[in-house]
Amino acid sequence: TQRTLVLLKPDAVRRGLTGEIIGRSERKADWRITALELRTLDRATLEQHYGEHVGKPFYEPLVEFMSSGPVVALIVEGERVIEGVRQLAGPTDPIAAAPGSIRGDFGVIVRENLIHASDSEQSAEREVKLFFPHHA
Length: 136
Ligand code: GTP
Ligand code: MG
Hints:
This protein has helices at 10-14, 18-26, 43-49, 59-66, 81-89, 102-106, 121-131, and strands spanning 2-8, 32-39, 71-78, 115-117. The mean pLDDT is 97. By secondary structure, the chain is an alpha+beta fold. The two termini are 14 Å apart. The structure holds guanosine-5'-triphosphate and magnesium ion.
């Protein structure tokens, strides 16, 4: 079984969409939340989290946005959950995301796309340790 690190981004918290988004993940058969915290991210944490994007043109605005208010960080565990949450989220650009997906239903602009979910087993393990260092 897998685990993945999910962030409900500051736009999702500001717009009151956390319950809706968490509910979609919680209702999937076999999946369960094993950690959950509301917190405001600092630059150092974001630089580690988004290390692959440091230096890209969208990096600074991304960090500004991601530190603009609290996020909800959670670990979701279950069968095929890494690919599964990415599927629930939809593509990075919300306009390319189909209705029915989280980004497709609630998003318009690329930066404010509501949710992050780990993109591989390797990223998931790295991100879980970054956000929940004491989690088993
Ligand atoms: P995350 O789950 O947040 O990592 O999104 P992702 O895996 O779908 O996308 P990626 O890791 O490639 O990019 C991280 C975040 O940077 C995205 O969610 C967007 O908010 C932002 N981003 C990525 N590409 C672009 C871009 O071309 N333009 C802008 N403005 N933002 C981008
Ligand atoms: Mg990503």
